[in-house]
Amino acid sequence: MDWNKMFICDLDFSFAFEIVIRTLIMFSMILLILRLSGKKGVRQLSLFEVAIIIALGSAAGDPMFNKDFAILPSVIVFIAIIIFYRIITFIASRSEKFEDFIEGEPLYVIENGLFVLLDNKEHTFAKDEFLSEMRQESIDHVGQVKTAILETTGKMSFYYYEDEKVGFGMPVQPKLYKDKLKTISSDGIYSCTYCAHTEKLSAGKQSCQRCSKEEWVKSIDDKRVA
Questions:
Q1: What is the spatial distance between Cα 157 and Cα 25, in angstroms, rounded to a whole number?
Q2: Nearest Cα to Cα of residue 26 among 185, 95, 66
Q3: In what order do the strands lie in the sheet with 188-192?
Q4: If I label 81, which of 18, 131, 177, 205 is the partner at 20 to 30 A Cα–Cα?
Q5: Alpha-carbon gap, residue 198 to 210, rounded angstroms
Q6: What are the pLDDT digits (tens) for 160-219?
Q7: Mean pLDDT of 111-132
Q8: pTM to 2 decimals?
Q9: What's the pLDDT tens digit per position in 132-163?
Q10: Count of CA atoms in the C-beta half-sphere (13 A) of 48
């Protein structure tokens, strides 16, 4: 293995300082463009804006370390990108249909305390990640949540039942959720792990009345602690 070729190759050390300067300039340009977009954090970025970030990164990458690429052409690309971004956002602010096409639409994940049943092609989130989002919001089980919406920025919005309306629901804590059953071992209240439908079941093999799945977990009815 040629370590010299792997780490150094034909690097001109006299160009190393220029690489640092180029990198600082291009990185500063990226930060400036992001600042002009008005966004405060990555979680606020839509898919369209993520595409803009990728384009900025591509335009900034080569001039950082390649002496054959001048900085000015990349600056022109940056200006073109921000003008395009402003035009698109202006049109989107005037047309709701165009905005939905560019940004996407919010997706209901939970309604009335149950997972929304969608065609598999429409599911744009992993359940494990969603359960993690719930735990970060101090949610113990699905029965505490009336509605959950996946926003176009990737952030989750939760609306909760009042304490007196909280019923039994599918637990989201890892130790409880992973204790899944294909066959009910004893009479009790259980939740379907696929759709969160909850009902009282007797011992034996049972199918969910809502989605026909056959995997269950013991339900809990704890009140939410904010």
A1: 38
A2: 66
A3: 198-201, 188-192, 216-218
A4: 18
A5: 10
A6: 999 999 999 999 999 999 999 999 989 999 999 999 999 999 999 999 999 999 999 999
A7: 75
A8: 0.67
A9: 999 999 999 999 999 999 888 778 999 999 99
A10: 20
207 and 201 in contact (C-beta within 8 Å)?
no
The CA distance from 8 to 77, in Å, is 30
Whether residue 121 is predicted with pLDDT greater than 50 in this model: the reply is: no
